[in-house]
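R.M. (postdoc): so does anyone remember the format we settled on? I'll just put the structure tokens first.
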């Protein structure tokens, strides 16, 4: 995640200033950011099937716990095998969220929801990668079931991020505190609880046919966890501020997660209770807000698109407004619309925030592909005031974003590690940047690892499929391991990208 390392601010500012000048020749002629982003850097046709395989393989590099015999990312080893034991609970497993060694439940749950949604919408296009996608989802849900095993309590994090970020060490060598953090009725966390419910509900649909018993366990737990989230309202960062902020503070509040969680439970159960909940409380939970960011913290846009399907394809008339809400979100991304909030780099990349911008690119692209699917099936279009846009237009815009990430950009660099011939080699990731256990069996102490952090040498272990934070607003990318905003991969960047790649790969997949 956002790894706040001990770096000299002066050196950092000087470095970024130098990089900006050194890379100036890589930018192209600027134009109005809100208009006409074009795919100015066409490369060879992309192998979306290969990119899909790599995007899913990435999750094996993020695994925590006892690794299975089928592990393909072989430079990784078992890690954190006693997580939770100090609290007499088994919290072994799950994912490290990014380049650090903490297990943050909030982004892990969102990652799980988005991987599941990717499979639900485009799993039929995944071919042999469908099984690997389901394995990636199950690695997360097995952990989330452990974290929610005790009614009235949800374990939402393992590892003290403040001490973890003072070390640069492999997960296999961790000697920092594996502190366990939880929420309960006295210390609520509606945001992380409702996102966990959404993840379990979405995953229950993924496994409904292939493993009915597991699916039932997931949905029953999801219902219980959502009830807890709604009954005991509050933001988890209010209770756990010192250990979740500034890493994964709930900046958007918890209302978006309640709406999102209810939408997934409605989809998974068809229980009228959840539809009534959405109808009666949707507006108070922000259904019609104008925010246009979709990511681990703010789920409003995702909920709008998900619920629009109920009107478009199931004719649930009481959810008619969600088609308009979804249109408003899509319109905010479209170039040429008078009230568009979107900004694009000179090279045509959707640019939202400087910190890990590609997470918003992959999530927005997924929603564009998904909403286009709903519109095509129902023979609808997007309405933006007096303008209308076809599903094909949405797909074209989304595809341009995917292609930019894969190499159609001013630097002709793939921002997915291991894809193409030119990709980031110095990613901000502890395990990737340090010698593997196979090559260096001895433990590497906390402080000794910083030599690798500051080294200019390429990472010795390739974290295949990892999509990094991405270029800046002028399409520059320094490939600097110490620049976590641009060089750190995360599980939630990849999760929606899996769905987009599956859609684009379907015409070449058997």
């Amino acid at each position: 995640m956002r790894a706040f390392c001990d770096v000299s601010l002066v050196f950092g500012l000087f470095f970024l200033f130098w990089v900006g000048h050194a890379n100036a020749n890589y930018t192209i002629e600027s134009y109005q950011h809100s208009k006409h982003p074009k795919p100015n850097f066409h490369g060879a046709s992309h192998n979306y099937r290969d990119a899909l395989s790599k995007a899913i393989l990435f999750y094996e590099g993020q695994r925590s716990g006892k690794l299975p015999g089928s592990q393909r990312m072989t430079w990784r080893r078992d890690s954190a095998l006693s997580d939770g034991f100090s609290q007499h609970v088994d919290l072994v497993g799950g994912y490290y969220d990014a380049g650090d060694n903490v297990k943050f439940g909030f982004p892990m749950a969102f990652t799980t929801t988005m991987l599941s949604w990717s499979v639900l919408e485009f799993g039929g296009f995944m071919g042999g990668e469908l099984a690997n996608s389901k394995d990636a989802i199950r690695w997360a849900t097995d952990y989330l079931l452990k974290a929610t095993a005790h009614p009235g309590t949800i374990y939402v994090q393992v590892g003290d991020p403040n001490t973890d970020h003072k070390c640069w060490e492999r997960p296999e060598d961790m000697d920092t505190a594996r502190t366990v953090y939880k929420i309960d009725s006295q210390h609520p966390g509606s945001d992380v609880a409702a996102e966990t419910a959404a993840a379990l509900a979405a995953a229950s649909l993924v496994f409904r046919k292939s493993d009915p018993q597991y699916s039932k366990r997931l949905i029953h737990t999801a219902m219980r966890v959502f009830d807890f989230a709604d009954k005991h309202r509050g933001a988890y960062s209010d209770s756990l501020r010192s250990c979740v902020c500034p890493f994964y503070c709930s900046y958007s509040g918890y209302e978006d997660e309640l709406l999102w969680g209810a939408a997934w439970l409605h989809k998974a159960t068809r229980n009228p209770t959840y539809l009534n909940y959405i109808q009666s409380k949707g507006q108070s939970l922000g259904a019609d807000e104008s925010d246009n960011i979709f990511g681990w913290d703010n789920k409003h846009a995702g909920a709008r698109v998900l619920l629009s399907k109920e009107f478009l394809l199931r004719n649930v008339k009481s959810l008619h407004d969600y088609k308009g809400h979804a249109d408003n979100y899509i319109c905010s991304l479209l170039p040429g619309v008078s009230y568009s909030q979107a900004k694009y780099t000179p090279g045509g990349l959707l640019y939202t925030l400087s910190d890990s911008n590609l997470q918003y690119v992959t999530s927005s692209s997924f929603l564009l592909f998904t909403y286009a699917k709903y519109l095509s099936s129902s023979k609808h279009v997007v309405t933006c005031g007096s303008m209308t846009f076809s599903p094909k237009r949405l797909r074209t815009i989304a595809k341009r974003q995917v292609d930019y990430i894969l190499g159609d950009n001013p630097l002709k660099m793939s921002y997915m590690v291991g894809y193409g011939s030119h990709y980031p080699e110095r990613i901000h990731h502890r395990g990737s940047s340090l010698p593997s256990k196979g090559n260096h069996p001895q433990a590497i102490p906390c402080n000794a690892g910083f030599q690798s952090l500051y080294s200019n040498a390429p990472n010795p272990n390739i974290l295949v499929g990892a999509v990094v934070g991405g270029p800046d607003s002028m399409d520059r990318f320094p490939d600097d391991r110490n620049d976590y905003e641009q060089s750190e991969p995360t599980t939630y960047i990849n999760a929606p990208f899996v769905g987009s790649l599956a859609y684009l790969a379907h015409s070449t997949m058997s």
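R.M.: ...and that's the designed sequence above, right after the tokens. Also worth knowing: DSSP finds 19 helices and five strands in the chain. Residues 2-40 have pLDDT under 50 and may be disordered.
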